[in-house]
Amino acid sequence: MRLRGLNEFWYSRCVHRRIPSEIFLLTCAALCVAVFCVADASGAPQQVKPPTPPGQRLDQITPPDAVQPAKTSLSVVVLDPAHGGSDAGARGASGINESEIVMDFTRAIRAALESKGLRVVQTRTGNEGPSFDDRSAVANAQRGAVFISIHVASTGTFGQVRAYSQIPQEMAGDLLNGQSFGALSFPVRNGLLPWDRAQEPYLAASRKFAELTQSGFAQKFKGSPDAPISAAIRQLRTVGEPAIAIEVSSVSITDREPLLRMAPGIADSIAQAVVSFKPIYEAAAH
Amino acid sequence: MIFDNEEAGVKQKSSFANMPPRIKWAIAALCAAVLIGLFYLPRLWRGARDLGKPATSDEQARREIVQPPIVTPTDVKVQTKLFWISASNPSVLESEDVSLALSADPVQRARQLLNALILSPPTPQQRTLPADTALLDFYLLPDGTAIADFADTLSTGTPSGIMSEQLAVDSITKTLAASVPQIRRLKILLQGQEAESLAGHVDLTGFLTVRTAAPASPMSAPPPPAPVPSGAGPGAKPGT
After folding, report:
1. What's the predicted TM-score (pTM) here?
2. I want to staple A108 with a disulfide (CB 3.0 to 4.6 A). Which of A138, A192, A256, A263 is the partner?
3. Is the ipTM reported for this complex over the cut 0.90?
4. B213 in contact with A at a CB cutoff of 8 Å?
5. How many separate domains does chain A show?
6. Domain shared by A128 and A219, yes or no
């Protein structure tokens, strides 16, 4: 009844305006096709994917047409000063807080990276306390980026700096033993990645980045290990780009000045590592 | 001179003898008090020395009340391996052979091992788990998945840092792998809840691999523990 009424209404409008009904119908059809094309181009209608069997790799999940063949250059560094807000992180007996010291380190690292022409994005700039996922969201919104999470330990010999790369939790167990990280190449993100396992395609690239960073630390800070350490770090697991964590020892000293004097050396090592990693990143991204 | 001294002694004797009985009793009581004090002095000295030590003994005493030692009918003394921080290199773990009474039941055995890991590190510097933490519960599923529920003091008492947290988790998994062959993977809960991280760094959301090989025997028939005189006790540390 309602459809018939609508037809009569449009028919009367067409007759009244002397527009042939065929032209009106053709115009409507053309409009429908145009709307469909616009929606398809913007990606609104999602392709229905078959369910993913457990244990399937990310590169198998990502549809082939979602991987761009174009190369991506490394131009952004996401710095993550750990903790913040109500979470002060490691606390020394003399009142040194990890969440404050890492901000000082971040400022020095940011200046060193910007002097090399790199853009820096921070996961926090004040005493906010974003969640792990909030920090990962900041990182995952960037293209052509690496992620560095900055920590100060509550234990360990003062003056040592260690770089960590991620290993999946089920592989964790041997901190210092070498692990197999698969191929160095990784897909440029242009599709959906499982959030909880976003770091998996980047394990080898992250390990390489950690090696470059740790070699700088070993030269500048006596007692630091020569090789990076692999650990199951919650923050790195959800970052979909090459990602490392660095940890400085430690807040257990009585005065914060010696810790702050380490900042320029840490910043230089990281800036140099990012510059060295840039061609590796660009070769690995496909 | 001699006469004078003798005279003085006589005078002293006479003065003590002439003392009123009340004074004599008071002097005797004082002497007795001094003797009693001398008797208790070594004990007092030890008590004062113990006051300077950290309050670990209090925490242990509290835990002993809350969580009595686990004793089962199948307990047998075996030589097993517990993993603590290395005395020479604080960034790695090292195993130590310890003689423990362990149950044949894998769940009770795991509880006994984790309690020993908490209670008896060789030195405070080698400790991986906080002294005031406690294992609240432990479950083992037929597929080899274990669930260890710790008090939240495991999170608040572990030194914050990637290295220290990873060492804590590794000491748990390696100790279980050495002596409980039925466990394949482990989930750590804090106060009955799933936690994102141990103390802000190391991931606890998934399952930790304890051993990659299949269990040595079905859960219903655990392998008999190796007795102490067998030396290194290879039966107690398979697949390390």
Report:
1. 0.69
2. A263
3. no
4. no
5. 2
6. yes
Q: Can you tell me which residue has the tokens 């030269």?
A: A219
Domain shared by A149 and A267, yes or no: yes
Give B206's contacts in chain A (Cβ within 8 Å): 168-170
Contacts with B, A 173-202, CB within 8 Å: 173-176, 196
A11 shares its domain with A149: no
> How far is Cα A119 from Cα A52, in angstroms, rounded to an integer?
36
Is residue A49 in some structural domain?
Answer: no
SS3 of A152, please?
strand
* Cβ B110 vs Cβ B172: under 8 Å: no
| Location of structure tokens 């089962």 | B72
User: Helix or strand or coil: residue A223?
Assistant: coil
Residues A211 and A184 in one domain: yes
pLDDT in tens, B218-235: 444 344 444 443 333 333
Domain around A12 = 2-41
**Cα B215 to chain center, whole Å?**
30
pLDDT, tens digit, 9 for 90 and up, residues B69-108: 888 888 889 999 999 999 998 889 999 999 999 999 999 9
Residues A14 and A156 in one domain: no
B59 close contact with A: CB closer than 8 A? no
Question: Minimal Cα–Cα distance from A157 to chain B, Å?
Answer: 9
Task: Using CB atoms, pick whichever of B160, B174, B205 lies closest to residue A98.
Answer: B160
User: Are A23 and A163 found together in one domain?
Assistant: no
Express each pLDDT in A234-274 by its tens digit.
Answer: 999 999 999 999 999 988 888 889 999 999 999 999 999 99
